[in-house]
Structures
1.
Amino acid sequence: MAKKKVQFMCTAFRDGFQSVFGARVFTPDFLPAVAAARDAGIRWFEAGGGARFQSLYFYCNEDAFDMMDAFRETAGPDANLQTLARGVNVVGLDSQSSDIVKLHAELFKKHGMTTIRNFDALNDVNNLIYSGKCIVEAGLKHQVCVTLMELPPGCSGAHDADFYTATLQQILKANIPFDAICFKDASGTAVPSKVYDTIRQARKILPADTFIHFHTHETAGVSVLANKAALDAGADAIDLSMAPCSGGTCQPDILVMWHALRGSDFELDVDVEKVREAEEVFKDCMSDYFLPPEATAVEPLIPWSPMPGGALTANTQMLRDNNIMEKYPEIIMAMSDVVRKGGFGTSVTPVSQFYFQQAFNNVMFGPWKKIAEPYGKMVLGYFGKTPVPPDAGVVELAREQLELEPTTRPVLELNDEDPNKGIPAAKKMLEDEGLETTDENVFIAAACKEKGIRFLKGEAETGVRKVDKTQASQPATAAPQQGPAEYVVSVNGEDVFMAFEGNMVTVDGKVYRVGIKPQAGGGAAAKSDASAAEVTEVKSQMPGAVFKQLVKKGDRVRAGEAILILEAMKMEMEVASPVDGQVSEISVGVGDQVATGQTLAKITV
C-alpha cells in the first residue's frame, strides 16, 4: 500500500522567528537560508504577517513590505507564500476599521503574498466574515482558522471537540469563502486525543475535498504526537520548521517529523538530505543572534498558563529589555488565574498578549489591582464575544478602571464609528508629520501608530539581540541596557561565572538578589529635609521605556495629571504627578529605559 504524502508549510522564517527571537530578525541575515530551503525543494513558506509585521518597525528599523518583496524574489515566482492575520485585528494588537481590514488584504497581495491564514483568538466568527471576504476579493487564498488550546487544569467550558465543531459550523453557516480550514494550536497544549476527535468531527461535516491544515508548537512537549493524531484523523497538511528555529517554542523540525513518521502510513514529501544542508545554512545565518534558553526547551508548566510559543520569547525579550527577567516564573503562574477569569479566549495573539499583560500587572502591582487596558477591553466585549462569560468581578473592575461600559456590538461597527481609526485618521497622522500618504504608509500608521510614524520619519530605534563574539560570551544588542552582562571572574585563582541582570546576580548557577544604597547619614544621594519638603520626586512604579513626554520644565501640573507615558510589555501607562506644582525637572528622555523606583521628574510645590 502506497504511503500518503504529507504536505507541510515551512514556518521557520515567520513563526520560527517569532517563537525564538521575539520576531526581531534582520531581513538580509536570513534570506540566504530561504534560498537554501528553496533549493532543497521547499515551495510553501510562512513569509510574514502576525508579529513579523509590527516587529520590523518596532525593533528592526525595516519596512515589512520591503521584506515581503525580498522574500518573494528569493523564494521564486511559484512559491506559496503565506502570512498570518488576526481577523479584524489584521497584524496588530488593536482591532481595525473596515477600510483598514480591506487595505491589509490588497497590500499583502500587491507585495507578493499568496495565502493568508486568518483567525480570531476568541473564535468569534463575526470577526472572520468581513476579513475573509476581503482576502478572497483581493485575489488571495483564504485559510480560515479555528483556534485551539487546552484549558488550565481544573477548568471546563468551551475548548473541547464539540466547541470547535460548533465554531466550524458557524463558519460554514456564515458562508465565509475559504480555500482551506486550519486548526491552530498556538500554545501547543491541546491534547492529541482532542486534536484527533476535532479533526474527525470536522471531516464528517465538511465536503470530502476540503483541505485541512493543523498547526501546533512543541512548547508543552506533545507536538509530534499531536501532528500524528491530526494526520490519522484526516488532516492534509501540518506546519514544520527548521533548526535553529525548531522544537522548543517552535514547530517540530522537518527532520524530526520525518523520523517520527518512519514505519507509518505517512511520509513527508521532502528530500531530507537537502533539508539537512539547508538547516546548516540557516544555523550559520543565525549564529550571531542571542538564543534565549527558554526557546529551546519543553516547558512542563505551560499547560497551566497556557503561554503560546510565539508569545513566550517575545515577552521574555521584553522582560530582559526591562531588566526584570526574574519575574518571568511568577508571571507564568499568574496567567492561569487570568485565563480562568477572562472568558477562555484562545491563548494566541492578541489575546495571549492580553493575558500576559494582565498577569504582569498582577505580579507587579498586586492581584487585580490594575487592569491592563487591552485585557479590560476584551472582557468588556470590545474585541468580540468570549467563548464563555468572563468573571463578573473582573468585568466590574474593568468597567470602573477603564470607564467603559460592557458592549455586545460588532467590533467592526464600533471601529467604523471611531474617528481615531480608519484611513482618514491614518492620513491625518501622516499629513501632520509631512509624510506621504501612500497606501503602504497609511497602513503602517494605522497598524503601528506612533512607532510607525517614527519609522517613516527615520527616527526608529533598533532592538535586535546579537552576541558580541569579540567579548567571549557577553551578549550584545543594538539597544542599550538589554540582557544580562556575563563574566568569568578569577577569585583566589579559581574561575567563577557571574551574570548580572537588574538587581539579580547569578554566581555559578545560584541566583542572588542584590542592592546598592547610600551610606547611612549622608553622601551624595542624601537630601536635606528642606529640599524634600520643597520638591516631590515622581518615581516609576515599574520598569519600562519612556514612550512620550507630555509636559516640559516650567509647566504647571495638577495632582493626577499625566506627565509621561511609559511603555512596557506593549502597554502604555501614564505616569501622573502626585501633587499640584511646577515641573522643575524632567530626568529622562523619550526612549530611555527606566527601572522601578527611578526618579522620572521633580515637581516643586
2.
Amino acid sequence: MDSFPGYSQMLSELFEMLDPEKMGSSFRQALSVGDRDGLIKSTAAYFRSRSARPYCKHLDRSQCTRETADRAVKGDVTVINIPHTFPEGKIDWLFNPTLTTPPVNHEWLWQLNRMRFWMDLAVAYEETKDEKYAQAFNSQLYSWVATAGNHSDDWNAAGSVWRTIEAGLRMMYSWCLGFETFRTSPSFTDENICLMLSSMFRHCVHLQAHHKLRNNWLLMEMSGLYTFAALFQEFKCSSAMRSYAAETFSKAILLQILPDGMHDELSPDYHSVTLSCALAFSNIARHEGIKNELPSEFISKLELSFESALAMSMPPLISPRTNDCFTSSVSRKMKQALEIFPDRQNFLWGASNRKEGKAPSSTPSSSRFLPWAGFAVMRSDWSADALCCCFDVGPLGAGHMHHDKLNIQIYKGSQELIYDDGGGQYEHSIYRAYGVNASDHNTVLVDGFMQKREAPRKVDSPIDANWISNEKFDYAKGVYDDVFGPLVLCEADLEIPPRKMAKHTREVRFYKPDLFCIKDTLESTDGEPHSYEMRLQLDTVKMEQLSAIPGAYLSDFGAVYDILILPLFPEELETRLLSGVDTPPMGGWFVGRNDLKLHKSTTLTMTISGKKDCRFATLLIPVRRGEKLPETEKCSANSFMLRFKGKEHLIDLEDLSR
C-alpha cells in the first residue's frame, strides 16, 4: 500500500532508470519478477556497500557546527538570520514565518529547502556516530519527499520548494553529502534510500528541462545536475546528463566571466557562487576520473576569475560589498583556488592569511583597475593595515544591481570607514528599497532624487577611467549622466518619471599612503538650478563636528582608526547627520545582508542648493584616535597644502591627475 500519493510511481521510476548491469544480480533477479520489496532491498544494499565518493569527502565543512546540528534535530533552524522552531520538531517544508511576521521574505522558505543544516547533521554524525543525527535526517528526508516531492508547474514562484536554484544547490551539497554520510547508518531505511535516489533523479530531470538560460542560477542548476550525474553513474541517463551539464555550464561561464575575471553581475557574492560552482565541476570531474569532459578553456577562465577576486580584496582579505553582496572571504576563495592551482604563490598567500606564499605584485603599484567590471581598487600596499578604496565607475551589472555608480568604499586595516552595506535581505520592505538605491551609497542626489539608469548592464569594450597608478598616487575618473528619480516606497512614487537633470563627474585621487581626495563636479543638463547632496555612509552613530577645522567631522568607531571628513569649501555647504531616518530619501541605516542585521548608522550629507553647476572637494583621512590632526592651508582658489604625519601634500583641484 502506498504510504503517500505518488509513492509507487517514484519507486517504479527509480527501478526503471537504474542500469541492471551495474546494479548486480540481486537487483536483476528482483526486476525480472517485479518484486518491489526485493528491489528496495537490493538497491539499498548496493548503495550502502559501494565505494565512498571522494568528492563528498572534500566538500567544505568549515561552517558546520554541532550546535546547528543539535538544533536541527529538534526542528530548530535559522534561515537568513531569522530563527524558527517547528512544533514537535517536525519541519514543515511549505511554511514561511515571514508571511505572518513581516517583512515578507520569500527567500526564507526557499533557503529552508536548501537543507543547509543537513550538512551539519552529516558532519556531526561523522564525528560522533550518534544515531540521533541519522534519525533526524531519515525523518526529515521522508517528510520532504512525502509533502513536497512533487513540483507544480509554477516551480519558481513564491512558496514553491522546486525553484530551480534550490534544486541545483540541494544536489550540489546537502543531498549528496547527506546520502553519502548516512547511507551506512541503520537509521536510514532501505525505503528512504530508494525514495531519496528517486527524488534526486527527478531533481535532475527537472533541472535539465527548466533551467535558466543565463545568470548565476544557470551555474548552480548545471552544477547540481552534473554532481548527481557524476556521483550516481548507475543511472542509465547519467552520461548524457553530464554531457549536457558540462556543455551548458562551460558555455555559460565563458560568457559570464568578463575579460578582467569578474563575474558579470558585479557582486563578489555571486562571483563566489560562480567560483564555487566551477570548483564543484572541476573537483567532481577530477575525483571521478572524468576530467576530460571539461573543455580546456574552462580552467584558464577559472584561474582568471580567482585572480580578480584577489585583485578586489580589501585589507582584511574580504571583498568589498558591491551590488547585492554580503561579506565575502577572499581567503576562503584562495583556499579553493589552491585545490586546482597549487603552484600559485599569491593564492597561497591569500589562503594562508599572508603567512605563506608571496603577495601579489606591487609593480607599478599594489592597486588594480578592472576595466570591464569598472572597479578601481586603490591600495597603499598588500599589508593587513593597508589603506584601501574601491571606486565604482562601471555598468549596472547583469543582475543584482544597485543604482550607485561612482560609489566609494574605504577600509583602513580591518575597519570599514566608509561603507557599502550590500543592500540587505531580499525582503519586501522600505529598507530593501533604500539599500539598493543611491541614497544608501556614497554618491550624490539631485533634488532628493537618485540614479535610476536601466543600462548598460555590461559594457562591450573596456572602460576608460583615466586610470593612473604608481608608487606616489592613484587616480580614476567616472561620469554619471543618466536619469534621476525618487526612492520608490509607495504607488505614488511610481508615477514620478525619472528624468535627466544633471551630469555628475567624480574624480578620486589617492595620495599614498595617507588620504583620498574626492572631487565631484555637478552640471545641470536641464538648464535649471538644483539642490546637490553628497552622501557618506559611516557605521557609527557617534560623529563629532570639529571646531578647530571648519566644516570637518570626525567619526568615533571606538576602534583603532577613525576617519576625518574634511570639505575644502565648507562655507558653501549645508551639512547634516542622519540616523534612522525613514522618510524619503531616507538615511542613517546600515541595511545588513546575511551576516549583518539592519541597524542605525550615520549618513553625513553635504548640500549645495540653488545652483546650476557646482563642485564638492572632500578629503577623507584615516586617523588614529588622539593622533594629531592634519593642517590645511589654502594656496589659491583651487589648491591647498595639507600637512600630515610630517609630510606635505599639494591638493591641486585644477588637475588631480597630475
3.
Amino acid sequence: MKLRDNQTFMSLYFDPNSVEFATGEADSFLSAENWERNTKQFGQVATPEPIADLMAKWVMSARPAAVLDPAAGLGGLLAACRKFQKQTVLIGVERDIETLQRAKTAAPSGTKLILADYLKSDAGQFDGIIANPPYVKSQRLDYSEKDWCYFEERFGTPLDRLTNIYALFLLKIWEDLAPHGRAAVILPAEFLNANFGEEIKEQLVRIIRPVAITVFAPSLNIFEDALTTSAIVFLEKSRSPKLPCWVKRVDSIEDASHFLNGLLSEAATCAGDGCVDLKKLQPCTKWLNLLFNGERPTGSDALSNRVGDYFNCRRGIATGANDFFCFSRADIREHHLTEAHVEPCITKAVDADGLVFTPDKFDSLAARERRCFLLNPSRNGQDLMRYLKLGEQQGIPQRHLPSHRPVWYLPENRAAADIWVAVFSRASVKYILNTSGAKNLTCFHGLYAKPGWESISPLMTLFLNSSGGSRSFSMVNRFYGNGLNKLEPKDVEEMPCPAMTRLSQEESAELVEKLAALEKLSSPEQLAGIDELAVSYFDIKAAEPV
C-alpha cells in the first residue's frame, strides 16, 4: 500500500482470481505444525510463535495502518501482529497456490491474501512489514538474467548471481517500507559471512542502516527443521544516519526480548553491552566471526601469510550416487570386479582420523570392509559392462552429476590431496596429512601444494592442528545451527598462517614421524605436544588463548 492523505490504496491491481480473504477459522501456528505438506522445496519454514511475537512487537510499535507479510505462508507472523492491534489491515503475499489456499482458513480473519511473486510485483509501500523470507539457493531460482538485471536496477546495487532469495527479499522490503515505518525480518545469518553477502552488507552499512541486528548463538537452533544460525533485522525508515546501528549476539529468545525492549526505550543504549556498531564494520569481512569469536588481529607478524600462499584448496570428488560408485572389497568381489576398476578413496569423514593417514591405515580400513574404493576403471571387460548396465537400469546416468560428465561413470579427474580438511566440524576440525595416496569425496576438502612447496605439507599440517591453527580457523569459519561449523575452499585458503620455510626431504620425513608419534597421546597431551613442536618451527605463542 502507498500512503496518501492518510488514505491507503493498492498501487497494483492484481487479478481478482489472485486475491482471497482469510476467514480465521484455524490457529495459524497449529495449522503450520499439523500441515503435512512438504514446503521445504519452496524454502518455507514456519516461524516459532515466540519469535513471531518478538518481531511483531517491533513492527506494531509504530502503530501501522497496514502490515505486509511478503512471504505469508499460513499467516503466523500476521497473527502475531493482530495480537497487538485489532484494527490494523493485514496483507499477505504468497507465491505457492496450495499454501495460499490453506492460509484462507489459517490466517487472521479479514487478511487479504494475494497470489504473486513478491520480488516481481509492486504492492506499493507499507508502514509495517514483517517477514520470514524463503531460503532458496541461487541454483534453484527460476529467475532469468533479465530478472537479475531488473533486481540490480531496482535495488541500486550489483548482485552476485549466487545471492540467496532471502537477501533479495531484504532489499525489496527496504524499498517497500514507508517513511517512518518499521519492519522485522528473520533471516539465516550466513549472509553476514557469505561471499555473496558482501553487496548486501554494503547496502546495510551505506543505505539501509538498520536499527539493530540480533544474531542468535550457533548453539541455539531457532528452526527445528533447518540447520542454520538465525538473525533478526530490525528496520526503521527515515532514521537519522547519525544514530548507531547495533549488531548483537543473543544466546536465547529471552536475551533477544530484553534487547528489543532496550531498542524500544527512548533512553536505550547498547554501548558496552556486547554490541557492535554496524557502521564500524567492513562489508568484506566476516561479521559472524567478529561477533562470536571477538576481535582478531588479521595482520600480525606471527600470522602474516595465508594458507592460499602455499596451497590450493579444492572440494572433494562428488559422485552424484555414492551407493553406486563406492565399494568395499566385498562389493568388488560380489560384482566380479577387480582393483583395476577402482581406486582408493575416503568416502566418509569418520574413516580418516589422527594427524597422518598412512598406507597401513588405508589397508586396515579396507580389511574392515569399509567402502573405501571409488569406481574409476582403467580397463573394460564384461564384468564392468554388466555393472554399468545395472547402473543404467537404476537411472544413474540420468542423475544430475553423472548426466553432466563426459562419460557418466568416470569421476572427476582429481589427484590425491596432500592434506585433508574436514568440511563440517563441531569441537575441532580434522586436518590430516595424507601419505596413503587415497583420494577423497566431499566429506573433506583437499589441500594441494603449489609448485615448489610440496615439502611443507607436514609443516602446514602441524600449524593447522596447533592452537594457532584454531585461532586462524576462528577468523574464517561459517556458523550453522546447533554449533555446527563449515569451511568452504576459499575460507581455507584465506586462513592466516605463519611464513613457511621449505624443508629438505629428510626434514619433511622427520616431521611426519613426529606427527605420527603425537597421535598416541591423549587429546590434551597431544595438543600440548603439537603446540610445543609448533613453537620450534614457527614464531608463534603456544599458550595464547583461543
4.
Amino acid sequence: MENKILDFLAQHLDTETLNKINFSPVPRGQKGDLAMNFFQLAKQERKSPVEIAEKFRGILTDCDVLEKTEIVGPYLNLYFANEVFYNEVFSAPLESEILAKKNIVFEFSGPNTNKPLHLGHMRNHALGISMSNLLEACGATVHRVNIINDRGIHICKSMLAYQKWGNGKTPESVGKKSDHFVGDWYVKFSTAAKAMADKSRESKNDPTLDQQAQEMLVKWEAGDREVRELWQKMSEWALQGHRETYQRQGIEFEKDYRESDFYLKGKELAERGLAEGVFERRADGAIVVELPDDLKPKNVKEGENIDTRKVVLRADGTSIYLTQDLAVAEARKKDFNPNQLVYVVADEQNYHFKVLFYCLEKLNLAKKEECLHLGYGLVHLPDGRMKSREGNVVDADNLMDELFNLAKKEVSARNAELSEAEKNEVSEKIMDAAWKFYLLSTNPRKSITFDADKSISFEGATGPYLQYAGVRIKSILRKANLKTSPDLAQDKKDSKSGLKFLDKNPAKFLGSAEKQLGVKILEFQKVLEKSVQNYNPTYLVTFLMELAQDWSSFYANNSVLNAETEELKNSRVLLAHKVLQVLEKGTSLLGFSIPEVM
C-alpha cells in the first residue's frame, strides 16, 4: 500500500521530497491503518509537521487507494479503501528481493571436539538458523558452513584423560552418546588435574597433567602415530554425536572446515605477510601485526610498556586462532567467491574479529566491509554461568529431552486420543519451538538466562503459544474443508476447497473488523527486510507474536464459520488462511514448524 501511495504522490512531487516521507504504524491510541510523518520535511522547509500534513492531506484527496485521511498531532493517519486494501493483503508477498545480488558465507556453531554441544551453542544455532533463513528469504545466496575446533591443548586434555583411565572403553560399551562420552573425559581431566596439582609440586620428577597434555600437543604437532590415532578416534566420536544433535535441531551445513586442515596454511600466510611487509618479526621471534589506533589498548597508564602489536604466529612457531582464521577465510573465498563473510560467535570474541578483519584486508584477502561478526550475549543458568571443565553446563541433548518430556506431558493431557508416535511427533515440534523462540526473543547483543519452564509454556510470549495460534487456524480451515497448501485467494475456483467463490472477490465482503489483521500482514515483508538489515531476528519474533495476538483478539470477537453471510464466512476463512501462511512462513524462518494438533 505504501508503494501505491508513493506512486500517486510521484505525480505531484519531486523525488527528493518523496524520499523524505516516512511511513509508520499508527501510534498507540490513534485510529487509522497507516501513519505518515513529515519531521524531515518540516525541518527542511522550516514549517511545522502539521502544516506539512495539511499539504499532503490536500494532495491525497483524490487518491483512490484511500478512503479518508486524518491529521492527529504531527501524523497524517491514512484509512485504506477496503477493496484495494484487501486485494493487497491477499497478494502480499512472503519474501523479498532486497539481497538478490548477495552471496554470503555464513558460519555458525563452531564446536570443540572435546565435549558435546551445550546451551551456549543453542543460542548460536538459533541465531544461525534464523538469520541464514532470513537472508535467503530476502534473496541472498547463503552458504552455511561450520568451523570445527579439533586441535589444541583443550582437545589433548580429553585425549590424555582417556589414555590414562579409559581402559579401552567406547561409547557403545558404556551405552552413552559418543560426544557425551568424550566430554566426560574432559571433565575427568579437570577434576584429576586439581587433585594431582599439589602432589606434582612435591616431586620435580612428576609432571602435572597440564604439562603432560602440553607434551601430547607437541607430539600431535610432530605427527606422532599413536597420538594421531587416538585423536582421530576421539574426534570422530565427538563429531558423530554433534551430527546427531544437528539433525535433531534441523541444521545442515554445506561444508565443514577443520582447524587441523588449516593451521599449517595459516603459518604460510603469516610468513607471506612478513615477506610482504604487512607483518613484522618481534625480538623474540614471534610474527606480529602493528594495529591501527582504534584497535590498540585503551587507557594505557603513563610509563607502562605495552606492546601495541598483535601476535599472528607465536615465537615457537605454533599457530593461534587468528592464524587459522586467516587461512579458513582464504579458503572460503576460493570455495564460494562470496561478497560477504559472516561469523556467528559470542561477543567475547569482538576484539578477535576486529583484528581478523583488519589482517584480512592487509593481506588483500577480504575488505573489512565484506566481513561481519554477528555477536551475541552469553546464556546463563538461573544459578550463574556455565563452565564446561567443571561439568556444570546444560548439554543441548539433555535440555531438548527435558523440554520434550514437558511438552509430551501437556500434549498427552490435551490429546489422549493420539497414538504414542503422534504424541512424540507433536512434542518434538513443540520442544523445537520452545528453545528457538525463547533464545531469539531477546536482542542477540543482550545476555539471557534460560528458563526451561517458561520456554515451554503454552501461554505468554513463547514458541508453543505461537504454534497454538496456528493450530487453531488449521482447525478452522479443516472444518471449512479448505486446503491449507495453495494460495486460494488467487484460486477462488478450486473445486477441492469446499468454498464456492466463483468470480466473486472476497475483498468486497471484508470490513473494519478484519483491518488490523490485514495491516499486520502487509508489514511482513518490511519486517523481513528490517531483520536482515539489522541482522536481528528478534524483529520477526516480535512481529509473529503480535500477529498471533491480533488473530486471537479478532477470533474472540468475530465468528469465522458462523459469520452473518456465506460470503463473509468464506472471506474470513481465506483471511485466516493468509494469516496461517504468514505464521507458517515466519516460524519456518525461525527454524520450527506448526503441528496439526496440540
